[in-house]
Amino acid sequence: MDEGRARRRGVSPRLWLAGGWLLLALLAAIFAPLVAPQDPLAQDLMLERLPPFWISGAEPGYWLGTDSLGRDLLSRLIFGGRIAFIVAFAAAIAACLVGSMLGLVAGYFGGWADLVISRIVDVWMAFPPVLFAILLVAVLGTGLSSVILAIAIIDWTRFCRVIRAETMGQSRMDYVENARIAGHGRIGIMLREVLPNVVPSIVALLSLEMGIAVIVEAILSFVNLSISTDDPTWGGIIAEGRLSIHQAWWVLVFPLITLILTVLSFSQFGEALKTRFDPVLR
Q1: What is the number of structural domains in the chain?
Q2: Within-domain flag for 26
Q3: Which residues make Cβ contacts (< 8 Å) with residue 47, sequence separation at least 6?
Q4: Nearest of 90, 107, 36, 122 to residue 217 by alpha carbon
Q5: pLDDT tens-digit map of 199-249
Q6: Domain with 217 in it: what CATH number?
Q7: Percent of the chain with pLDDT over 70
Q8: Has this prediction a pTM greater than 0.85?
Q9: Lowest mean pLDDT among 34-43, 127-136, 264-273
Q10: pLDDT at residue 10 is higher than 60
Q11: For 60-117, how does the pLDDT look when each residue is reduced to its tens digit (9 = 90+)?
Q12: Can you give the pLDDT at residue 8?
């Protein structure tokens, strides 16, 4: 079934494929102690750099092999997903709430409110986001809350700019003018009439931002600026795998694949939801 026919029937292959991977990864992260085959922190130098199960020399129970300290790679990826999803949901929702509300205000009221908010956004976006995140974490200190706060502080501008543009377009629609004629207040029109029509864009941006948050957290953990404990993170595993790429390629390749699939799935899931529920696109 091609995507066009599937969309006409109300089913999007992108939605199912991306949503399926995200659901699988999320459930594995939530139930990590139950589904992980080994302790992700247990070290055994006698089992160092074991290959994946299909390669000669593999050990039963270590499906994706082990790293240079003999730790099970699959278990570390599953537990690392916990950090990735916590950061993705918390940072993206915080950035969404702040940016979307400011974007609504700027786009609907215009005037000095739009001028002030737009100038703040322009100044904020002048800083390179990744370097800004590293600077903020260095100032705030390492830790999960610092990473979430840094990402939210940086990325609220993305929501603000897009929702501002969407709101300006919706504010010119006839249904808004009809609500004004009916005597509804400006704040009431913004929340009851305009906001529901920009929700599809917010949903798409929120899903995309979750993928971006996963990437930023991986970058921070790659340079050892994420959580300060021994808990596994995808970026930390990639950093370890880079040092042993010639002896154990799987330690680098599998976390990279996991990271790429998760980020792409967040992006495609958001776009598919927007296509599915946006009345204009439908």
Answers
A1: 1
A2: no
A3: 59, 62, 66, 70
A4: 90
A5: 888 988 999 999 999 999 999 888 888 776 678 999 999 999 998 888 899
A6: 1.10.3720.10
A7: 93
A8: yes
A9: 127-136
A10: no
A11: 889 999 998 999 999 999 999 999 999 999 999 999 999 999 999 999 888 898 999 9
A12: 47
User: How far, in Å, CA of 89 to CA of 86, rounded?
Assistant: 5
What CA–CA distance (Å, rounded) separates 208 from 162? 13
SS3 72: strand
Q: Using an 8 Å Cβ cutoff, are 171 and 104 in contact?
A: no
The token pair that represents 170 in the structure block: 């919706």
H/E stretch holding 134: helix 129-140
Q: Which amino acid is at 169?
A: G
User: Which own/partner pairs from 86-90 qualify as long-range (CB within 8 Å, at least 24 positions apart)?
Assistant: 86/144, 86/148, 87/144, 87/147, 87/148, 87/151, 87/213, 87/214, 87/216, 87/217, 88/210, 88/211, 88/213, 88/214, 88/217, 88/266, 89/210, 90/148, 90/152
Does the residue 151 lie in any domain?
yes
Q: Which domain holds residue 177?
A: 62-277
DSSP calls for 74-91: HHHHHHHHHHHHHHHHHH
R_g over Cα of the chain: 22
| Mean pLDDT over the full length of the chain | 86
Report if residue 107 sits inside a domain.
yes
Residue type, 7: R
